[in-house]
Amino acid sequence: MIFTIAAKELKILFSGPMAWIILAVLEIILAYFFLNQVDAFLAIQPQLTALANPPGVTELIVTPLFGNAAIILLMAVPLLSMRLIAEERRNQTLNLLLSAPVSVSEIILGKFLGLMAFLSLLIGLVALMSLSLYAGATLDPGLLAGNIVGLVLLAASFAALGLFISSLTAHPIIAAIGTFGALLGLWIINMSAHDADSWLNTLSLMKHFESFNRGIIASADAAYFVLFIALFLVLAVRRLDNDRTHG
User: Fold this and answer.
1) Which structural domain, as residue segments, surrounds residue 20?
2) Which end of the chain is more exposed for a tag (fewer CB within 10 A), N or C?
3) What share of the chain is helix, strand, coil (3-state, %, to 5)?
4) Residue 109, C-beta contacts closer than 8 angstroms, at least 6 positions apart
5) Sign (positive/negative) of CA torsion 20, 25, 28, 31?
6) pLDDT tens digits, residue range 130-189?
């Protein structure tokens, strides 16, 4: 049932213009950044050859590309997640969904996986851009893998928070604004930290993504994202459980 709900959500996403517009715009923006980075690399390549241990294509092109993709997802996910439950509530179809012979957990996981399938397509296209560099250069597979894993975990965190906030309101626009505000706050919160051990760094999404962006798959950072995702999925389940109980 989870995958049935996920497939339905993905079909709904692609049945409207929003997903196609977001997909096209994001890929155009990322392709622009990618080509700019390639041009910049080619411009400084003569200077790099004079260095004893110069940075490679992966460090100078792939790492910035995934960093830009993370920022773009921060803006795109609120628009994609806003309708997941808020629209059901607004259209008064949520009670019908909750009365179906399916658990609330299956509903939440299905909607989450449907959104993640779409986001995985975006991430896959970013990865393909990076892999295209194999045609004329050598990539660092560990650094590339770290960026892919990190971006998937970051996107899943965005999606889980967006799904939870969508469950709180009947207005998709409010859900989008709330999700963007919360994600932006969690992204930049570490800017107020006065030292590396500050608890603000522990909460910052950006700080935990930075390790993956450098190709370091640290267990602490992976655990942060897994717990973050689980927390907001559980909160979304509890919210809908409350709706089912109290009608």
Assistant:
1) 2-246
2) C
3) 80, 0, 20
4) 2, 5, 6, 233
5) negative
6) 999 888 778 889 999 999 999 999 999 999 999 999 999 999 999 999 999 999 998 888
Q: Distance between CA atoms of 234 and 9, rounded to whole angstroms?
A: 19
Tally the C-alpha atoms within 13 A of residue 105's C-alpha that lie toward its C-beta: 3
Contact (CB, 8 A) for 15 and 121: no
Comparing C-alpha atoms, which of 60, 226, 228, 27 is closest to residue 143? Answer: 60
Q: Give CA–CA dist 147/153, Å, rounded.
A: 10
Confidence (pTM): 0.92
Neighbours of 81 (CB within 10 A): 27
What is the Cα–Cα distance from 115 to 104, expressed in whole angstroms? 17
Compute the distance between CA of residue 90 and CA of residue 66 in angstroms, rounded to an integer.
36
Contact 189, 200 (CB under 8 A): yes
User: For the segment 41-86, what is each residue's pLDDT rounded down to a tens digit?
Assistant: 888 877 877 777 777 888 889 999 999 999 999 999 999 999 999 9
Strand, helix or coil at 91?
A: coil
245 CB burial (10 A radius; 0-12, 13-18, 19+):
exposed
Number of domains in the chain: 1
Q: Is 47 exposed, middle or buried (0-12, 13-18, 19+ CB in 10 A)?
A: exposed
CA distance 225 to 220: 9
Contacts of 16 (CB under 8 A, 6+ apart): none
Task: State the Cα angle at 72 between 68 and 78, rounded to 5°.
Answer: 155
